[in-house]
Write a structure and sequence with these properties.
mainly alpha, 3 helices, 58% helix, globular
């Protein structure tokens, strides 16, 4: 993914995904956007559920 991926860009990309499509995000972007602890993992899971 992009080096400077923002939550807004991530949300936009997720909104454009079709049913069953997968959007890959690098570990680096994930850690930068959501952190690396259990709370961050829960936030990411909730974010993903809302965007199916």
């Amino acid at each position: 993914m992009d080096e400077n991926l923002t939550l807004a860009e991530l949300r936009s990309r997720l909104d454009r995904l079709g049913a069953g499509a997968v959007l890959r995000i690098s570990d680096r972007d994930y850690e930068r956007l959501f952190g690396i602890n259990e709370v961050a993992a829960a936030k990411a899971a909730e974010f993903a559920r809302k965007h199916r």
